[in-house]
Amino acid sequence: MFIKLQADRLRTVFQILLTGLLLALTDSVALAEMRIWHTQDGDRFEAEFLREKPGKVFLRGTDSQNFTVALTNLVANDIKYIRSRILPEVQIDFSKSIEELERSDYARQTDHAMEVTGTVTVRRTSRSPFDGQFSGEVYLIAKEAATDDYRLFDKRGFAVRFPDGSREFEFETKAVVINYEEYTTEMRGAFYEGYVVILFDLQGNPMAFDSNLSWMDESRIDALRKLPVPSFFDQTCKKRSVPRPKSGYKGFEFSY
Question: Which domains does the chain possess?
């Protein structure tokens, strides 16, 4: 399940609704695991965690029977475990800055090396604290100057945490994209085009998605994730061959 965010007003609403639905579907199955629980009275029992509602923890025993325990009756380690298993509602934001790097002594005026800095911000919008972590990936995508293809020029993974009750997590990545003029005056290289951010649940399934690219949707995510860096691809995320000069200059074999 994915969230496609294209407007600020839709961003928070869609992510909250979908995250809530994911939690409802996965609390009783995907997040379940048998473990030993301890009460404040010194009792211990084996059960799997199902879900939490205000003041109550819903569990399933080894006999497959469901039962509840008061949250206040559990020891601190058990409460911390619960806080690490219930994924928070989140909002994804992305910002970028582009800086032209200094040319070398051998570069021409038409040669440009652009350093793109992308910052992913994940905001916890739910009230309940979250003591665990979940993973995410960010992709930086450029548009080829000479063709209709795209280039994946950066892909990074990160772990989202909200330590000490914080509500915001940031991850920054940097990558360089180059464009230049051929000896035939044809522009080559690529220009920054956009980004894709994906967040994953505790089982590694995508739970939230954000991109500024109108053609990027959930059906293309699996194909995008399989592409290495660097890769040339089309809008379906199908890998393409390296673009080559169209014309007549034979002095060099170009590849990048």
Answer: 34-85 (2.30.30.700), 90-240 (2.60.40)
